[in-house]
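Input record (one chain):
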Amino acid sequence: MSLLGMEHSRSDYLYATSLHVAVKRGRKIVLPEYPRIELYHISEDLLEIGVEQKIVSGYEVKVYNAERSVCDAVKFRNKVGIDVCSEVVSSYLDRQERNLSLLDGLCEEDACCQYPQQIS
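The corresponding structure, as predicted from the sequence alone:
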């Protein structure tokens, strides 16, 4: 794997980046100095939407599926930037295993892709 033009192992790459962790809004967390962790406080009703169980380095962890990630990129496009949002959506649409029905359902459930109705 290449990181900034240098060859690194997969584990080096994992430790070079920060971990992004979603927690229930209002929960108090004490973070260690290492690894770098970025917390996202999410309301309880949205916390479990799009969660899957995966095995990572022998540990069972909860992660958001690709559809939830796309939904979040659209929802927070002003924070992550339009370029990042566009790249996330394009990458998702290029995937063979995309599930547009699931994406649509998550967007409706999370209200991330809905725009206010125009008053005529």
